[in-house]
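#help-structures
NK: newbie question, is this the right format to request a structure? protein is Ubiquitin carboxyl-terminal hydrolase
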Amino acid sequence: MELLRSNLSRVRIPEPTNRIYKHECCVSFETPRSEGGLFVDMTTFLAFGKDYVGWNYEKTGNPVYLHIKQTRKVVPEDRPSKKPTLLAIGVEGGFDNNEPQYEETHNIVILPDYVTFPFPSVELPEKVRLTVDAIIMAEGAERKEQLAAWTADKKHVSAYAMNLPQIGNDVIVPPSGWKCAKCDKKDNLWLNLTDGMMLCGRKNFDGTGGNNHAIEHYKETSYPLAVKLGTITADLEAADVFSYPEDDSVVDPLLAQHLAFFGIDFSALQKTEMTTAERELDQNTNFDWNRIQESGQDSELIHGPGYTGLANLGNSCYMAATMQVVFSTRSFNSRYYINQSLKTAFEMAPADPTVDLNMQLTKLAHGMLSGKYSVPALEVWKKGQCDKQEGIPPRMFKAVIAASHPEFSSMRQQDALEFFLHFLDQVERVNGGSSALDPSRSFKFGIEERILCPSGKVGFNKRLDYILSLNIPLHEATNKEELEAFHKLKAEKKSEGKDVSSDEIVRPRVPLAACLASYSAPEEIQDYYSTAMKAKTTALKTAGLTSFPDYLVLHMRKFVLEEGWVPKKLDVYIDVPDTIDISYMRSKGLQPGEELLPDGAPEAEVESSNPVANEDIVAQLVSMGFNHLHCQKAAINTSNAGVEEAMNWLLAHMDDPDIDAPISQGAHGNEVDQSKVDTLLSFGFQEEIARKALKASGGDIEKATDWIFNNPDASVSSDMDTSTSSSKPTSDDTELPDGGGRYRLFGIVSHMGTSTHCGHYVAHVRKDSRWVIFNDNKVAASVNPPKDMGYLYFFERLDS
């Protein structure tokens, strides 16, 4: 007891705001039910498994821990139950929630010798007893985060909805063909519910997204509510309504009435939805689910290294399916499993490893690939109760990867494609762009768009991407005769007042080769500004790849918006071969005899280049307690580079005499010290890049130099109208992995449901010369992988 008293200074009584981890180890998936139980650090309230608590002691010197062990009770009722026939609890034939019960024991343990004191005990010091009681009674951090995510999903009714003024009743909004009223944007459009103006959304920090016209319109008019076009369906509660003065997504109880003011008939919309191809797709939903999940197949369950399932956290299948494919690649396997131990990642992690992406990626990789947790559930429970493994719950990984994304941090279903791109972006950031460490580079490739002007001159636009997004040309279907017969049958049944049955439905079959050919085919660009002709014209665009990545991801654009405002999933099969050759898609650059378009930009573009603060950066800074105007200036003066850069600028300029002066439009470009620009020019940097770097670094030359090297993708403009006068590959092009154009299919992420934001995702991965299905915590040999029903296809390069 004296040993415990001598370490009382290292014991903290937790405050209500402290996060207490007591359900899962920070560096592994050990729990209180694991053989060694769980050790909670009574200084930091972080939890560690038996094999890992020593690492924490070595790193922090914290000696006092609460040991929590849960042991399964053995009771007579602990037996296999009959399959329920009714969804009822506590009645014969109903659902029997026959989960095992556990007894929990507690001890105080002092490292390094694991000296143990039982709890409860009146002999323990009061501070220890208070601390342990607080830990036991507290809601675990894991549970708190889950509850917060559920709560965050609840939208409130807007204070502006019930008395919303509406003007301009001669405005009729068409069901398609939308375009921003102030620019050429045709996506990310918002309908102002007061005057019916269709305007583009906010511009992202990287230049993508809209041009801020919707929010600028609010600032000019104070019209508060807007609804996102494309989210209006028969389920009006699912529509994305945003309140600018409340700065949040809201509920508009009178949305149907407000839409009707602009000619959008909700009753007709509901009828249209029920009579379109969506209904046919709904009829065939069971077929999709059974086919993709391989229901009814006598599948062999698989266990062992690389075959660990992921427990569903509540609509997290999009993440589970994506991670199973990603960690089947050599690049991610090597980076976070083979070449990095858990101990190394823990030693590199900050004081709280739960918020460190590198640590949680390593934890996830070791959990999925080691085989330690890939055991049949019947070995965990009583034999015969369950035929699947329990799977590991990726809670801490989800919390970290979604911390900067409001959608992924929610409990709603998400788009697997959006998550995949967000995930790779975060991995690239955490690895600092190092080609030696960054496994996301194995997916990255260059795209070159060649623009042919009627003048005969050409321009080139280059960008980097992780996915090749393909349209599906339905007119290239190979079963046209069967489709014609089906449409004839459908018309006959419709005249008889009948519907076609699910087994009569015929879907178009489109070869993947046709989708790839569509990507490479010439495309007309309307209203293209030609610097040679100094006018807008129609140009011809073709696209090709400047490099072939180690892993090629093909995204099938199955989700479109049909007439009647209804999001529609194309009911189509894609015939995907095991191997493809895309060598013909390599871009050729400037050819002999071709002349480049001259440098320049449209006059309107130059005039509209006034700076606009990134609202996400501003919102995060404001939430920290900073003045809104100051935050806007910080974002603008750092070129919207990020929250950290803006905060550094803000802290360095808090005492500026003009910090409270209104933002001056047009003056931003002259705020950089020209002598510092000249210094960077002498280093060989371009002037525009030098100015951008100095703004992002608060005028510090050394930091500006680092910024340029750490942001190789930085460019002055990525607008499509800006002609690129150089066809030489950038340094990024040359550093990307490259090889031949032959690829082999190794992964499929399939989606079931009518929208990417509902339904279910499943992964199929080719491992050890056979296909395996990963359906959350179910891992089994695939009998018939749905190669023609994929949403994302993953290919590995065969040629070096």
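mod (FA): yep, format's fine, and the tokens are attached above. The first helix runs from residue 2 to 6.
NK: thank you!
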